[in-house]
Amino acid sequence: METLANLESFVRSADGGSFSAAARRLGLSPAAVSRNVAMLERNLGVRLFHRSTRRLSLTEAGERFLAGVRGNLDGLQAAIEAAGEDAEPAGVLRLSLSPAFGAAYILPMLPAFLARYPKVRAEWVFENRSADLVGEGLDAAIGGGFDLAPGLVARTLAPAHIIAVASPGYLAGRDLPSDPSGLAGLDGILMRPARTGRVRHWTMRDAGGAEMLAAPRESVVFNDPGAMVQAAVLGMGVTLAAVPDVLPHLERGELVRLCPRWWADAGAISIYYSGRTLLPARTRAFVDHVAAAFRAQRLPERLAGSVG
User: What is the largest CA-CA distance in the chain?
Assistant: First the structure.
């Protein structure tokens, strides 16, 4: 009968492509993970991995074995966690979220959560990317634009709306546009995502359903939304940015919203987590805590560019 440690070391090594990646997820040394996998191979009498100095790759037998044990292992781990957390959520809460949005909106929710559930320890990764929850051993992720992989659930927290803003200093002496077509005469602080390599332009809409391209002049082009917002605060022109990124500056009067009846829809800000029935209690508690905090702070309404 194989031990859970051997099976888990094998599955996480396959997910991460190395013993080192598996070791980081499991809190073990790479040598310990390697020993567990070697013991599993000896007991089964088959080689599960092709080993090289750079990466592991599954053998044909390894592919078949992984397909057979992955779902059962996840279910067993969930059952163990759920049984141990009936009284109180516990364990490491691993979360992925963007640096700017996470620090400004989600991090302030953490103290109350940890005070309520002191047996939970937070281990968060702040990165501007779509995380692989299964492959990286994460409990949840918060953001927008994630591909909803099989087995994942997305719980919407707030809309992801894009609005046009500029500083009062930049707008001084200029006529304010009444609709997005008027942005063409203003200096633009635009985004060129590394993923596409093309300058991003938005089509804005109003409450009546009308749509119009928002295309200020390409005066400054960045690849980071935080830098775009800061450039707008510095008076360098108009930028189109997500409401969460500009809301504090709007509330302090450092930025002014242009074309206030118009916005672009970039989808939704959601919390992503496994859809399995036996979800760890810490994950379920955190999802509920964040959703309740969004409602209490009226963030769905405050972050909606459609309310003008």
Answer: 80
For the chain, what percentages of helix, strand and coil (3-state, to nearest 5) are there? 45, 25, 30
Can you give the pTM of this predicted structure? 0.71
Using pLDDT thresholds of 50, 70 and 90, give the confidence band for residue 150: low
Fold of 91-159+267-307: D-Maltodextrin-Binding Protein; domain 2 (3.40.190)
Show the beta-strand stretches assigned E in the chain: 49-51, 56-58, 91-97, 120-126, 140-143, 152-166, 187-191, 202-205, 211-214, 217-222, 238-242, 256-258, 264-274
Report the top-level CATH class of 4-84: mainly alpha
